[in-house]
Structures
1.
Amino acid sequence: QVRLVESGGGPVQAGGSLRLSCTTSGFTYSKYCMGWFRQAPGKRREGVARINSAGNTYHAESVRGRFTISRDNTENTLFLKMNSLKPEDSAVYYCAADSSEYCTFDLLRVTQYFGQGTQVAVSS
């Protein structure tokens, strides 16, 4: 049974930092494309960052230079380090996994493997 469980969210002041974790089980984690999405109330779910099985990363322009995605293939865990947080970063953050050879937000978005999310609330 595939499981993805996010943690590490919470309230933080603008300019602060958080590190999100996504612990996984039930699939060959090291071979999967992994990604982080976020969804604010009334907004579409958007891709934040992704990392392929080789460790190559992509960060959305809105977070580039502030957020860093990484993975630990020995612990089957995905991370998102978030620095210089802004109120507009407030959202529920989800991790996703996809087995496709191509690691894209579009493929991650339609995957059946999503976590339940962790809330990030940035106050000004």
Note: Helices lie at 105-109.
2.
Amino acid sequence: QVHFEESGGGLVQAGESLTLSCVASGFAFGNRNMRWYRQAPGKERIWIASISPYSAITNYPDAVKGRFTISRDNDKNTLFLQMDNLKSEDTAVYYCNAPSFLDESATPYWGQGTQVIVSS
């Protein structure tokens, strides 16, 4: 059974940093592309970082490029997101998932997420 446990969120001031973690279980973590997503209040959930199975390829949308860094530890089934120079618009609940799971199911499983609040 797929499970994601996100952690590391909190309340920070603009310009500060946070590192998020996501411990995955129930599937072959090291075989899957992984992504971080976020959902801001009143908005849809969007992806904000992706990483290939062996970390060779990472991608980011322009909104976070140069400020966020995704990484993974396949031995520990853990995904990370280093967030630097945080802005108020980064305020959201952050989730991890494998994009292939979203393609495979109309109702994919999501973890509880971790809340990030950036005060300006």
Note: The radius of gyration is 14 Å.
